[in-house]
């Protein structure tokens, strides 16, 4: 067992303050430290150390300022290429009182680089190996949906220094890629239903802002791409999150907790509750009305990040959303993102 203290032999003229000052402590900190390590009869209560022979002192004392600096240094503070691992496994579960739970799994591959000419971070993103409830979807619409999305992969996003995705690196490349791939898709997926779906998909990706919102509003992107300043916060703040894809962002009050879970990693947990005066029906419909909400929505979001202390690498991210109406849950969504 590591010994983090030793006995200091008190000399003539020593006081709690004089000893503490040499250690970078206050007299109160030294008194509390000594009393927590000594026997009851040897506790110290006064500045004067007459008749006190020994004082327990720490071998590696750190001030509050030093501890705070260590905390900041152990956490991400700006986006870097080392933040992401190249491959993550994702598991998502959707629950509502109206339908059976749905569980989906897939793989995402990420490569973050910095454009030397523009200084922008470019994120190369691929999503693949999609499974629903443990099986590869074999119905026509699900297969077509996956095929359309995979046809435009990889996607490239612009990411700012705070970790926020601000746009596509080349939106025209996305639309051109699908136009070229569509003929092959039409050879495999035939019929009016398939044609209508591909028409809708093409219109959607042609609308750059709509397409970007589709990604921004997913729980995956909200969890996987945190703002780096979240990790440095200590007090409550307000942040807006999407509780449903393609709805509108809802303002929440956020609290934060952090703890070392292993010697080389730290856990950062954000807990948020809805404070915006909108109804659950508005969130579900994705339309925010101007009228004041008579029955404001209640809901919570939790985000948990495990990061490596030295290289700030994201080891795992978890997120949960709960949306309720009159104390009855109407939507739950959970996601677990792990390396490899």
Present the secondary structure layout.
Blueprint: E1 5-9, H1 16-23, H2 27-37, E2 54-58, H3 64-73, E3 87-96, E4 99-114, E5 121-132, H4 140-151, E6 155-159, E7 165-168, H5 171-188, H6 192-206, H7 208-216, H8 219-224, E8 237-242, E9 249-262, E10 265-274, H9 280-285, E11 298-308, E12 314-325, E13 328-339
Antiparallel strand pairs: 1-2, 3-4, 3-13, 4-5, 5-6, 6-7, 8-9, 9-10, 10-11, 11-12, 12-13
Question: What labels would you give this structure?
Answer:
340 residues, alpha+beta, Membrane-bound Lytic Murein Transglycosylase D, Chain A, eleven-stranded antiparallel beta sheet, two-stranded antiparallel sheet, 9 helices, 13 strands, 28% helix, elongated
Q: Care to describe what's here?
A:
By secondary structure, this protein is of the alpha+beta class. Among the domains are: 5-61, Roll (Membrane-bound Lytic Murein Transglycosylase D, Chain A); 68-77 and 85-102 and 219-340. The protein has helices at 16-23, 27-37, 64-73, 140-151, 171-188, 192-206, 208-216, 219-224, 280-285; strands spanning 5-9, 54-58, 87-96, 99-114, 121-132, 155-159, 165-168, 237-242, 249-262, 265-274, 298-308, 314-325, 328-339. The strands form 2 sheets. The chain has an 11-stranded antiparallel beta sheet with strand order 7-6-5-4-3-13-12-11-10-9-8. It has a two-stranded antiparallel ribbon with strand order 1-2. Strand 11 and strand 12 (314-325) form a beta hairpin. The radius of gyration is 27 Å and the shape is elongated.
């Amino acid at each position: 067992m590591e010994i983090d203290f030793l006995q200091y032999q008190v000399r003539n003229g020593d006081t709690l303050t004089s000893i503490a000052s040499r250690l970078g402590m206050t007299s109160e900190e030294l008194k509390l430290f000594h009393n927590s390590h000594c026997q009851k009869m040897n506790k110290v209560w006064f500045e004067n150390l007459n008749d006190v022979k020994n004082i327990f002192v720490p071998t590696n004392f750190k001030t509050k300022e030093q501890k705070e600096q260590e905390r900041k240094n152990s956490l991400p503070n700006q986006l870097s290429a080392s933040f992401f691992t190249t491959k993550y496994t994702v598991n998502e579960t959707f629950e509502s009182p109206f339908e059976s739970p749905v569980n989906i799994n897939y793989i995402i591959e990420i490569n973050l680089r910095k454009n030397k000419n523009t200084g922008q971070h470019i994120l190369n993103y691929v999503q693949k190996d999609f499974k629903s409830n443990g099986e590869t979807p074999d119905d026509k619409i699900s297969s077509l949906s996956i095929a359309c999305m995979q046809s435009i992969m990889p996607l490239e996003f612009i990411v700012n220094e705070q970790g926020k995705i601000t746009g596509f690196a080349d939106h025209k490349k996305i639309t051109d890629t699908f136009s070229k791939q569509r003929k092959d898709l039409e050879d495999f997926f035939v019929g009016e239903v398939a044609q209508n779906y591909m028409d809708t998909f093409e219109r959607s990706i042609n609308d750059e802002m709509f397409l970007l919102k589709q990604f921004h509003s997913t729980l995956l992107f909200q969890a996987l791409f945190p703002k780096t300043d979240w990790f440095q916060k200590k007090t409550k703040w307000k942040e807006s999150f999407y509780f449903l894809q393609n709805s509108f962002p809802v303002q929440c009050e956020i609290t934060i907790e952090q703890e070392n879970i292993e010697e080389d990693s730290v856990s950062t947990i954000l807990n948020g509750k809805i404070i915006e005066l909108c109804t659950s029906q508005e969130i579900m419909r994705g339309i925010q009305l101007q009228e004041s909400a008579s029955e404001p929505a209640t809901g919570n979001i939790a985000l948990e990040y495990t990061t490596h202390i030295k290289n700030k690498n994201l080891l795992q991210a978890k997120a949960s959303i709960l949306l309720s109406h009159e104390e009855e849950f109407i939507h739950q969504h959970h996601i677990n993102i792990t390396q490899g």
